[in-house]
Amino acid sequence: MSVASETPNLEPIPAVPPTPNDDVMADDEGDVSLPPHSANSRPTSANSRLSGRSRRAPNNRQSARFKRTPIQDKLLLTELVDSDNEDDVLFSQDHLSSCGSERIRHSDVTNGKDDVDGYEEEDRGANSDETELDVDIDGLLYPDRVIHDTSGRTEYLRACSREDTTPISMFLRNLREKEFVLKYRGLGSNGTKALSIPLESNTTIERLDLEGNFIDSQGAMHLANMLKENYYISELLLAENSIGKSGVKALCQVLQDNNTVLKLDLSGNCIVDEAVVMLYDMLKKNSTLKHLVLSHNEIQDSGARLFKDVLADNESLELLDLSWNRIRTQGAIWLAEGIQENIGLKYFNLSMNGMGLDGSCEMGKALKQNRSLLELDISYNRLPQEGISCIASGVQANDTLRTLKAGSNPIGEEGAMALLVAVDRNDCTALTFLDLTNIIVTGAFEEMRIRMQKEKQLQVVHGGVVGSIDTCQPVDLNDTVDSIDPMGAFRRDPMTKLKQYVQEAGLRMLDLFKQFDKDQSMTVSREEFVKGITKAKIGLNDEQIQILLNKMDKDHDGEIDFGELVYSDKEFREMQRNALKMQEKLDAKKSPH
Questions:
Q1: Whether the model pTM is above 0.85
Q2: Per-residue pLDDT tens digits for 15-31
């Protein structure tokens, strides 16, 4: 009998269907024939029948399960098969061999599951050393159909859908820019979570400014998780977001090992002394952070005590802003002791606290020893005249300080004169700017200021000259305070004229700010500010406009944002109160006893 006639009479093998490679071969003409062994011979065991198939079977352990999803009809890797799962229990090899099969998933047997039309496929096979591979099936089979989105746009839109939040078009437009600024837009914690997801893989944004978005502690945690994956963001500005203690903790834990973030702004975030402990731990381990802004918080003396130790040891921090906190005399003493030992800090802002006499005397000692500080702001610190004399002695011995801001302190014209004389006596001084805002000076002071401006290029800002309304006329040092006109200096201030215009026009400062903000970026550039002032015909000359710009642009970035506008308004109110108090004292002195 021929081979062709014998083949249809073969008995089928129950468990394993014949495969082309093992049991039947086809020649070039397509005729089916048996392998070289005789037609009537059969394998003696199930294992021998399956030997060829077993050699080709992939590994089942840690293999991948694929499912076809309706999104772009694309195969996505959805889960890994875990052999320890109860539903994935495998029969023993002996039992499977007796059944005429290799390894069968228990769940497939009991549930009668079957792979249909490629919707679910699972690899089965003996243990091997094969590793898991993430394969884009569509990318291999249909490369022309796959859209590669490396910007994170698709991820962001999906995240917004999951978090039920509205996508921010400005974010989508700036995904490939180096800077993303989103201020006072009500982002919230959910919006922050959606925004953090594409930022994990974003490689272009280096400066992230989310000021005033009320992201709270949850949003800060999402940003912290993002920083675990993102190594490109170097400036993180989160002012006015109420992240609290929990948010600070999450960020500090990440920043202990982060070597990318160089500037961190956490001002206006309800940070108390308990949260400063976490900042302390972070600054002890982090050696790359250069700028730390903690203004408008609730840090007190115990928090200042921790910063003393940080300043004594940390050499990388260059800017520390603790303005508008609740640090009083003892806290100021500790901070001054830290400044005395520090060798890296360049900019220190302690304005709007309460240094007092003892704190200012300790700061004077620090200025004699410190050789790294370039700018010191101690304005609005209740410094008495005796305290500013200690500061003056430190300035006279210092050769590195370039900017000293000591305005709005009750130091009088004698304290102002002491500072100017100290600068004049220091032949090695580096001081180029002295801010004595709201402090009335004498004619002798003004004469010395003009001379030193020519000789040492020193610029001085003060609250006006005794006995002068619109011009600076020389006044003898022996003149009494009877001729001081504090309200006149207040009325001449450019901010006073700006506020007067707003009131007469029936507007708010915010309304005027929005009129100047032509591109609706929630910030006003210097060009927009000058054009707005000129167009509104407020009555300020070029010099007054520049003075106003310098006062309002607190961070000197060339733009005025909403936070700086609020800060400037607070400063104006404080200046008004000080002028009224001084005027009351003068009136009381002039009145007959």
A1: no
A2: 444 444 444 444 444 44
Q: Residues 89, 170: one domain?
A: no
The C-alpha atoms of residue 120 and residue 118 are separated, in whole angstroms, by 5
Planar angle of CA 461, 467, 470, nearest 5 degrees: 60
Query: Are residues 220 and 289 part of one domain?
Result: yes
List Cβ neighbours of 139 (8 Å cut-off, separation of 6 or more): 146
Q: Residue 583 maps to which CATH number?
A: 1.10.238.10
**Please, what sign has the CA dihedral across residues 494, 496, 502, 508?**
positive
SS3 for 347-380 is EEECCCCCCHHHHHHHHHHHHHHCCCCCEEECCC
Whether residue 216 sits in one domain with residue 324: yes
Q: Annotate 27-53 with three-state secondary structure.
A: CCCCCEECCCCCCCCCCCCHHHHCHHH
Percent of the chain whose pLDDT exceeds 90: 49
- Domain, as residue range, for 11: 3-56
Per the CB < 8 A criterion, the answer to whether 337 and 363 are in contact is: no
Q: Do 190 and 229 reside in the same domain of the chain?
A: yes
Statement: residue 49 has pLDDT above 70:
no
What average pLDDT score do residues 182-191 get?
A: 92
- Tell which residue, 117, 120, 126, 93, has the closest CA to residue 107: 120
Query: In which order are the strands placed within the sheet that holds 75-80?
Result: 75-80, 64-68, 120-121
Assigned token pair, 233: 């963001």
113 and 218 share one domain: no
Give residue-wise pLDDT tens across range 481-525: 334 556 666 777 788 888 888 888 888 887 888 888 877 777 888
Residues 482 and 590 sit within 8 Å (Cβ to Cβ):
yes
Q: Domain boundary at 15, 40, 56, which?
A: 56
Query: Residue 103 above 60 pLDDT?
Result: no
Is residue 445 in a domain?
Answer: no
Name the pairing type of β-strands 120-121 and 235-237.
unpaired
Query: Distance from CA of residue 538 to its chain's centroid?
Result: 37
The CATH code of the domain that includes 182 is 3.80.10.10
**Per-residue pLDDT, 296:** 95
Same domain, 118 and 165: no
> Band of the pLDDT at 545, cuts 50, 70, 90?
confident
Residue 10 and residue 95 in one domain: no
Query: In which region does residue 467 sit, left (phi positive, over 0), alpha (psi from -120 to 50) or beta (all else)?
Result: left
pLDDT tens figures, 238-297: 999 999 999 999 999 999 999 999 999 999 999 999 999 999 999 999 999 999 999 999
Boundary-marking domain end, from 113, 145, 177: 145
Taking the C-alpha atoms of residue 25 and residue 57, their distance in angstroms, rounded to an integer, is: 20
3-state secondary structure of 569: helix
Query: Cα(435)–Cα(379) distance, rounded to whole angstroms?
Result: 9
Q: Is residue 152 part of a domain?
A: no
List 292's β-bridge partners, or say none: 264, 320
Q: Is 484 inside any structural domain?
A: no
Same domain, 251 and 194: yes
Number of domains within the chain? 4
| DSSP notation for 300-350 | -HHHHHHHHHHHHH-SS--EEE--SS---HHHHHHHHHHHHH-SS--EEE-
Q: Is residue 38 domain-resident?
A: yes
